[in-house]
Design brief:
Layout: H1 7-11, E1 15-17, E2 22-24, H2 50-76
Antiparallel strand pairs: 1-2
Length: 77
């Protein structure tokens, strides 16, 4: 259960390795250590279940929307 690509390392994402699972480290809303980049589902969690991945994706989508709204509001002030 490891990433099937080296893209996260090449882009500078922080990775967590507990010996069994390698995942992209995110905050609870799916934000990575790279500004403007998000991760969800199996890449960001170790549960590897469809319903968990869908939930993670929905949460991360909400964070993206909130971050975009925040940027837009700052541009009109």
């Amino acid at each position: 259960m490891i990433q099937s690509t080296t893209l996260p390392e090449r882009l500078g994402y922080e990775l967590s390795d507990n010996g069994t699972v390698v995942k992209i480290v995110t905050d609870p809303m799916g934000r990575t250590n790279v500004p403007g980049v998000y991760s969800a589902g199996d890449a960001a969690g170790a549960q590897f279940q469809l319903i968990s991945a869908a939930s993670s994706g929905a949460t991360t989508a909400a964070a993206i929307q909130l971050d975009l709204l925040d940027i837009e509001w700052k541009s009109v002030q």
